[in-house]
Design brief:
Helix content: 40-55%
Number of domains: 1
Bound molecules: NADP nicotinamide-adenine-dinucleotide phosphate
Number of strands: 7
Structural class: alpha/beta
CATH architecture: 3-Layer(aba) Sandwich
Strand order of the largest sheet: 3-2-1-4-5-6-7
Largest sheet: 7 strands, parallel
Strand content: 5-15%
């Protein structure tokens, strides 16, 4: 039997680069997938891309998590798509990053817009979807990017730094709220470019070693793993490969990454006792340098950021 057979996964931002790969991976692993997008047309395109046929374990919901009223309608559409199924996993991979003038030349409206499309959509998603799965062995996973941890190599990217750092910090807030609940809230912070299905560069022209299908095992690993309250930084594709290493029983897959995660360790124990071992994030110097070079090269070419 497929590993996620009988499980139900709701994916927000399912038509996007990251979300589409996650949708494919969970479908292939036997899950019932509810793909959520603001656009019915993009969901139809996604079905073609994923070769979803009649009778497939796949449903769609049109919805937008930008504010409370649209979130209410989105949840009604998701409930209908679920058809009474309970949710086992939520992946919120909504929005990308906004670019704009340097901080002192940006307007407050541009800043608000950047946070609306990065942080606030995740906030509404958490408010709407987390309460119902708190007491289930479920997961709620958000997505951010490595710009979170560094001064942006180009000031035009400062809102990406802010948005990704805000999502990572929001994870910690949700981690504190849910530390005694069954649900596991985590964020995957991706430090490299990811291409759309079958592609070789991300949407801003940054060369990507693999496409989103190559990234998706990291999401499956989180769903089957033990990580709780973590911002898990994927510094390289090697970290994705590591996610596929079988559980070791004591710490679970990704033990090296998890133990250095934002919450300072595994689950409630780590949250309660950050201790001297805890480090804010597991960005090591070589990764930082690699990322800096990658971003610098992309900017020089007139391309974009890796996240
Ligand atoms: N791609 C990369 O190279 C890369 C690298 C590192 C990190 N990341 C991170 O991965 C996450 C997802 O990125 P992605 O590359 O998958 O981006 P993407 O291709 O733009 O997909 C994001 C999806 O979110 C949906 N969305 C829902 N509400 C939105 C809103 N208010 N504003 C904008 N989009 C909204 C959009 O789908 P609909 O239009 O269909 O609603 C869109 O397709 C981001 O946090 C990003 O920083 C990406």
């Amino acid at each position: 039997m497929a590993e996620f057979s009988g499980k139900t996964v709701v994916i927000l931002g399912a038509t996007g680069v990251v979300g589409s790969g996650v949708a494919k991976a969970f479908l292939d692993a036997g899950a019932f997938v509810v793909a959520v997008s603001r656009s019915a047309a993009k969901l139809e395109e996604l079905k073609k891309t994923l070769k979803v046929g009649p009778g497939a374990a796949f449903a769609t919901a049109v919805g937008d998590f930008k504010d409370e009223s649209t979130t209410g309608r989105a949840m009604a559409a998701i409930d209908q798509a679920l058809g009474g199924r309970a949710i086992d996993h939520v992946v919120s991979s909504q929005g990308f990053v906004k670019f704009g003038p340097p901080p002192t030349q940006s307007t407050a409206a541009q800043l608000t817009d950047a946070l609306d499309d990065g942080l606030v959509i995740n906030f509404h998603a958490a408010r709407a979807l987390l309460p119902g799965i708190k007491q289930r062995p479920a997961t709620f996973t958000m997505v951010s990017g490595g710009l979170a941890h560094m001064p942006p190599p180009d000031p035009a990217m400062w809102m990406g730094t802010l948005k990704n750092a805000a999502v990572n910090a929001f994870t910690l807030g949700l981690a504190a709220e849910t530390q005694r609940d069954l649900v596991r809230v985590n964020t995957l912070c991706i430090h490299f470019g990811v291409a759309p299905i079958g592609g070789s560069q991300n949407q801003f022209g940054l060369a990507a070693e693999r496409d989103t299908v190559g990234l998706a095992p990291a999401f499956l690993a989180l769903a089957r793993g033990k990580q709780k309250g973590q911002v898990i930084c994927l510094g390289s594709w090697g970290d994705v490969d590591e996610s596929e290493v079988p559980l070791d029983g004591a710490t679970g897959a990704w033990s090296r990454l998890s133990l250095q995660g934002a919450a300072g360790g595994e689950g409630p124990r780590g949250l309660n006792q950050p201790g001297p071992r805890a480090r804010p994030f597991n960005v090591q110097a070589p990764t930082r340098v690699r990322l800096h070079h990658a971003v610098g090269a992309a900017v020089a070419r007139g391309g974009g950021a890796p996240c």
